[in-house]
Write a structure and sequence with these properties.
By secondary structure, this protein is mainly α. A hairpin with a 7-residue loop joins strand 1 (136-137) and strand 2. The protein has helices at 13-24, 29-33, 36-53, 62-78, 82-98, 103-129, 174-187, 199-215, 218-236, 240-259, 261-264, 272-290, 301-310, 319-327, 329-346, 352-365, 372-375, and strands at residues 136-137, 145-148, 151-154.
Length: 387
């Protein structure tokens, strides 16, 4: 049953709206790419409204303190930049929402919203590939991005069965979409324990897995495999059946990695994306070594000089390394320390080693470490279970 307000144990409409606003602020084509300013302001004002309605309880952890200090240090050392303001707005908005939320309720709401987005995106993809709908051009001159009813496709890629055969949803890249899908899975892996008793949960899990497969994202496939293997390994300590499933999942994962063209082609020396990302990883690693403590600044002139010096590609795709190069190793330490602490509180049904590997895979592919999607993994919630 859905209520509008007042319940701390049931999902309310305002909970769904909070999750939806967080998601559309994370790499969506229409809302974030073309209307970033208005989207961020709506999210910020809503977060204050949500905090008041939900009786916010502030919980400050290591990441919150260090991130705020690093934003201040960046401003003092490298000056004002709108990207730095965006980082601060994302932090405040996400902090207010999670500090007002019961994690159990939040993860269920995130699960439901993501499943609905997946169903609708698959439906539009079928219509698109069947030539029933044709995309209309949005934002001419911004990479050839097409959209139809907020669902996007790229103009490049060799026609209908080129890059358009990948599932984008409302996001500007399949790689970003799979991040949302995989995080929804990570937060709700307990549904696999209850699949036989609750058929609706089985259907939701299958919808998310299907959507991840249709994104044809290398990172998405690898992360999905890591999540499933990590889930069965965690269960194997208590169940002989799960030990068998853990071994089988490892074998299947290995076969997929070796045989899937989505993965093997991505790591080919002839793959332009792999070459660009490899250059990014090397250049950003050198940038971190050159300025380890405070980084080279968020979108600052100093960072641009370092990027040119080490030959970084214009895509700046390696999210974790990119953020560390901008803000320094203090940011990296705070993120992983808080990620581990939050994992313990959330009782997630996956091995902690595989969880950290999965988040690293998600964070290394896209420059979204500043976004609510990655912040909600390390910020403390108001509550964690029904009380």
């Amino acid at each position: 049953m859905i209520q509008l307000f007042k319940s701390d144990k049931r999902i309310t409409l305002i909970d769904y709206l909070a999750v939806f606003l967080l998601i559309i602020s994370c790499g969506t084509a229409y809302f974030y790419l073309y209307n970033a300013g208005s989207t961020l302001l709506i999210l910020l004002f809503f977060s204050f409204f949500y905090a008041i309605k939900k009786n916010v309880k502030f919980k400050v952890n290591c990441f919150t303190v260090i991130y705020v200090l690093l934003i201040l240090v960046n401003y003092l050392l490298f000056g004002y930049d709108m990207n730095l303001v965006g980082d601060l707005i994302f932090l405040i908005s996400t902090f207010l929402i999670v500090s007002s939320s019961n994690f159990t309720v939040f993860r269920r709401a995130f699960f439901d919203v993501t499943v609905i987005l997946a169903i609708v995106s698959i439906f539009f993809e079928i219509l698109f590939l069947s030539n029933i709908i044709s995309p209309v051009l949005y934002g001419d001159g911004k990479g050839g991005l097409f959209g139809h009813y907020l669902y996007c496709y790229h103009a490049f890629g060799g026609g209908l069965w080129g890059i358009n055969s990948q599932l984008y949803g409302i996001f500007w890249e399949p790689g970003i979409y799979q991040m949302v899908l995989n995080i929804a899975l990570l937060m709700n892996m307990d549904s696999l324990d209850k699949m036989s008793k609750i058929p609706s949960k089985r259907i939701k899990i299958l919808v998310l897995v299907l959507a991840i497969i249709l994104t044809r994202s290398t990172t998405g496939y690898l992360t999905l495999g890591i999540i499933l293997v990590g889930f069965f390994i965690r269960k194997s300590a208590k169940s002989p059946k799960s030990k068998i499933l853990a071994i089988l999942s490892l074998i299947v994962f290995g076969i997929v990695v070796v045989s899937s063209s989505v993965i093997t082609d991505k790591f080919s020396d002839n793959n332009a994306s792999f070459i660009a990302r490899s250059n990014d990883w090397i250049a950003l690693t050198n940038a971190i070594i050159a300025h380890p403590l405070w980084g080279s600044g968020v979108n600052a002139a100093a960072f641009d000089k370092v990027a040119v010096k080490f030959g970084m590609h214009g895509s700046k795709s390696a999210g974790i390394l990119f953020q560390t190069a901008q803000m320094g190793l203090f940011w990296l330490f705070a993120y992983y320390y808080s990620l581990r602490k939050e994992f313990r509180k959330r009782n997630l049904q996956i091995s902690i080693v595989f969880y950290i590997i999965a988040i690293t895979f998600l964070g290394i592919g896209e420059p979204l470490m500043y976004s609510p999607l990655m912040l909600l993994l390390v910020l403390p919630f108001k509550k964690y279970q029904y009380e």
